[in-house]
Automatic annotation (TrEMBL):
It comes from Metapseudomonas resinovorans. It comes from the Bacteria. PANTHER family: PROTEIN TUSB. SUPFAM superfamilies: DsrEFH-like (SSF75169). Signal peptide: none annotated. This is Sulfurtransferase complex subunit TusB.
Length: 100
């Protein structure tokens, strides 16, 4: 069963990103929102970890949060989504796990 994992906390504040990455299955998806989009910063350890994820794991981020933080030089595999697409993603996966 494929799971969409949703992270909203900064990868620099705690270990949730690392814990999540260890549990991702081959057909899972990861959606970054809020402060979690800072994981996309070029040159960061968090960005390197995301780039090491298998290609079969989809990487998504809320476009509004990327824009609000003026992030650029994003990974090519990143799918930036708006809120309606976020809802659609939640319906596409068998389960949704929010890393609160």
């Amino acid at each position: 069963m494929a799971t969409l994992h949703i992270l909203s906390h900064s990868p620099f504040a705690d270990s949730r990103l690392g814990s999540c990455l260890r549990l991702l299955g081959p057909n899972d998806g990861l959606l970054l929102s809020g402060e979690a989009v800072y994981a996309l910063q070029p040159g960061s350890v968090a960005r390197q970890a995301l780039e090491l994820m298998p290609e079969s794991i989809a990487l998504h981020a809320l476009a509004e949060d990327i824009e609000a933080r003026a992030l650029t030089d994003l990974p090519l595999r990143l799918n930036a989504v708006d809120y309606p697409a976020f809802v659609e993603l939640c319906c596409r996966y068998d389960k949704v796990n929010s890393w609160i």
